[in-house]
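Sample intake — Type II secretion system protein H
Collected from: Acidovorax delafieldii
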Amino acid sequence: MTTDAPVLICRRSTGFTLIELLVTLALAAILGSLAAPAVRDFIVRSKLTNLSAEFTGSVLKARNEAVNRNTCVTMCMSSSAGDAAPACTTTGTDWQVGWIAFLNPTCDSGANSPTDSINMLLARPSMGSDFYLQTQNNRKKITFNARGVPGLGSAGQFNIIYQDVNNALNDKYSVNICMDGLGRTRAIPYSQTCAGYN
């Protein structure tokens, strides 16, 4: 009886060599550096679009509530910090600090806070300092009457811009929001003004 000699099979260990890993990492770094500007542009554009939509949505809510409830509604820049009750601020021109909207049954243009917490419609906190939501004509407060008219006397303009050193991203993605005498808003290119844009 014959027995076969055992066959030794040499198995090569599988895996990546150091050179293969270094090449892969180098390619990933190159692709990452090419994609970084596009990702940055996407983030800036997305945040500016969201801020614009949130602000115009707040204006629309305040205007609609004034009409639906047949009373005045005030929307203003917020001065609240920390746990303090939200109130209108009397300084600054950057609505990015946050804003509030509240029922103003007496239509008092000097009212800076709701008479009761139940009259608060919305309170939007600050989103940080990377973006500006600046008002023109030093407008810190808008009071809509029962017809939804803000009584601005002239068109209001709000600039939504990114704090960019070379302004390249501002030219691409920043917008101006125009509010007419009836409280309607529209977004126009950053390089244009509300008065001269058709």
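Post-analysis note: Residues 67 and 146 are 5 Å apart (CA to CA).
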